[in-house]
Amino acid sequence: MTDAQRDDARTPQVWTGHASNRFQWLLAGVGAACMALGIELAVDSAYTSGVAPLIMSVVGCIAAGLLVLFGTVAFTHVRVKVDRDGLQVRCGHIGVPRRSIPWHEINDAHLAPLVSPRHWGGWGYRWRPEQGTAVVVRRGPGVVIDLGNGRHFTVTVDDAEGAVRAIRTRLGLRP
Question: What is the pTM of this model?
Fold first, then answer.
């Protein structure tokens, strides 16, 4: 049995992984609190300055709360799947935002030992001209996908080494 056959036998047909960030739930709580404040102002307001300032306050609190709440809940976790179709990345509980990369677009993959939100400008779906696109939900190891033409896609995921091994095996490269 050759090394490639041994590696192929150890690599599953479908590889799945995930990463999560519990700190995002704290930020989601802040968003929920903003929404609650807006609702409280709308229901039990003693505003004497007029209707326009009250409406602006209520709408502002609810809008800010929704933005923070859904912007953070979407990135509490990420799921990554490597299968016969390519690489799929889904964020949050409803899987949005998502990204699918078919095999013909992937040239290579390698391990990034430390992906930091600080280097990408925060948590979430990020784009940096010099680094490419990333889904960063926590600090730690990740997978960097070489898409060709100098483009890269990075995702933080537990067992990033397993993801790299599965991708490189699928591409027929040495893991």
Answer: 0.74
User: Beta 151-156 vs 132-136: how paired, if at all?
Assistant: parallel
CA distance 86 to 48: 60
**Is the bond leading into 97 cis (omega within 30 degrees of zero)?**
yes
**Domain segments of the chain as ranges:** 3-21+77-170, 24-73
Distances (CA, A) of 23 to 118, 137, 138: 15, 10, 9
Name the CATH code of domain 3-21+77-170 (choices 2.115.10, 2.60.40, 1.25.40, 2.30.29): 2.30.29
Cα gap 58→73, rounded to integer Å: 22
pLDDT (tens digit, 9 = 90+) per residue, 2-25? 554 544 455 458 999 989 887 777
Cα angle 155, 159, 160 (rounded to 5 degrees) comes to 40
